[in-house]
Structures
1.
Amino acid sequence: MAKIIDGKTISMEIKEEVKEQMEKLRQEGKKAALAVIQVGADPASSVYVNNKKKVCAYVGIESLAYELPEETTEEELLALIGKLNGMEECNGILVQLPLPGHINEDKVIDAIDPRKDVDGFHTKNVGALCVGQRAFLPCTPAGIIQLLVRSGIEMEGKECVIVGRSNIVGKPMALLMLRENATVTIAHSRTKNLKELCKRADILIVAMGKPKFIGREYVKEGAVVIDVGIHRNENNKLCGDVDFEDVKDLCSAITPVPGGVGPMTIAMLMKNVHEAVSSAATENGR
Ligand code: NDP
């Protein structure tokens, strides 16, 4: 049986660290506030937004909630972001995605002051990450690096295959693994011989959005498997992109769903908000 990479425990460690750091900042007379903007009342988004508010309260970050109606125009949203950019007491701005179809997400993300872009999605932060400069790192891929580091899994020189090339997971994940000196391959829906490719991986990271797609025929014996996918199955139970039961005896370590990558995203968001306040972003994002 593989080692289970415990995202619940590791994310709690990070939240405790941020809580301590926030307490230190408070003693220096500094405060932190995160603006969380939700447009429309998508139930899944509401769950994510509420979780973010709860964790903010836990670590000592004030959350400024903006719950806007579905029919909010792009101009109105851009005006709010402009206002928050100029508010000194607001350190981070998060726009919950997806936005309703009539609003251009790219335009909205690029309207956020890059120094307040705690999601790490602004093109300036993405570009900085790409050329190895200091940047806010996208929370899910940065959380995966933390899972690997804190589980003692070596990345340097390892063959890493990432399935998925989205802007929020696959692409930044590849850049972060490169930064850790892994040899990186990115696979996507047009990749040929996906099985053979995945079977080469010492570290296989799956972010494809296809429930239980990856079975043991994709996994090399002893590989580390990181499952980013989150789905509800027919019994309303959560599952990932990896068929956990099928691969768990073959790999050396694996993240479960739930309790693997999922909890890391909010923890890393809190870390980014702290960095926005203290301007203490480290060069290697650890
Ligand atoms: P996207 O749908 O944006 O991207 C999916 C990627 O997988 C695409 O690059 C797509 O290729 C690729 N893909 C799809 N089908 C195949 C296939 N058959 N073979 C190879 N590649 C394939 O998803 P996200 O990156 O946003 O999310 C991925 C999963 O991770 C989802 O389940 C999502 O819910 C979850 N997620 C979890 C988070 C967490 O906090 N744990 C955070 C973010 C996402 P192509 O580009 O060619 O279409």
Note: The pocket of NDP is lined by residues 140, 163-166, 168-170, 187-191, 194, 207-210, 228-230, 261-262, 265 (CB under 6 Å).
2.
Amino acid sequence: MSKKSFGIAGGSIVVVIITAVYMITASGSKSKSSSSPAGEDRVLKNAYNDYFSIGAAINGHTIEGPDSILLMKHFNSVTPENALKPGPVHPEEGTYSWGRADRIVNFALRHQMRIHGHVLVWHEQAADWMFTTGGRPATKEELLGRMKEHIFTVVQRYKGKIGAWDVVNEAVADNGPDIFRHNIWYDICGEDYVKQAFIYAHEADPQAKLYYNDYNIIRPDKRERAYELLKSLLYEGVQVDGVGIQGHWSIYEPSEKELRDAITRFSSLGLDVQITELDMSVYKWEKDRRDKRVGESDDLTPGREAQQVAQYDMIFKTLRDYKDKIDAVTLWGVTDRSSWLNYSPVRGRKNYPLLFDREGKPKKAFYKVVDF
Ligand code: G3I
């Protein structure tokens, strides 16, 4: 056997063993849980059957690796974390790259899971080619034409399979007096791009539920800017069905009052509410990317863990109170190991934001969330 083929075979054996150990642990039937033996057979989606769907953001590695066992056991909805964003799916004019998205969609359909489409228009992970024409900035007409073609192609490919879409992501300003974030879409198209995106999405699939999705919209000032945007779209007769409160939270926020106020405020517009990207950092919110500082602790200390358990408990207790307004709660990942918060905003700093730990074992927060 050559060294190369031995390497592959050896790697495969390791993967099989790790997966087998993980499956036993994840299934809960043969492992001992250090947190709560009584909770071993708890299933997240079953606990919330009478409340809302329980989703997870997933990538190719989630459905191809050991996390797929947890995914199938505990979740009944998925959101492709990256595969359907314009950059990955539409890298060049006239070129679509469907492989990863198709695999996720087919997996979800095979396992009777809902699929939440993410995302049609965003300034990050965008199809950058859309914004220029022959070396000059695209005109508004060119950009809206490309947006329309993109939305029609993507939405119609998955018509009848993807029932809800994040149509526009993060169009609202974080601070200041303006409602709109000054991003590249806004710079070229002005405010119209948000409205047009919803119009095109509705034309492409009149049955699909259309969401506006944003972060920090439980903070009162940003919440009010998002509220004004949504109110004016609805006033103009634009089809908007719901608002995605992303839920990139931490052990420090939101407060129960902020959460209740946000759900009440958005649903007063007649919109469905989803928590679309729930995770709970053990650090304070930061937006700008940076490297981990020398000496900066990134351990899950008992104090941080206890705060996280209490915060998850409060969040889910509160969400259960609004089950008639909330359609789905989606965690932004399955295990702590695969969370984006391990590389963003602080490169090299471990985080522990989800309900399953790095080995796929249910955390103390998991038991708080399912035992009620
Ligand atoms: O796929 C490339 C790979 O080819 C390349 O080698 C590698 C090198 O850096 O990068 C890979 O792309 C990364 C991509 O995730 C897929 O893993 C990007 O660098 C990385 O920036 C990207 O991060 C994603 C981030 O959005 C982009 O802003 C996160 O995974 C994803 O969780 C995050 O999700 C967003 C939501 O869509 C919207 N709300 C906020 C949320 C968190 O930022």
Note: The first strand starts at residue 53 and ends at 58.
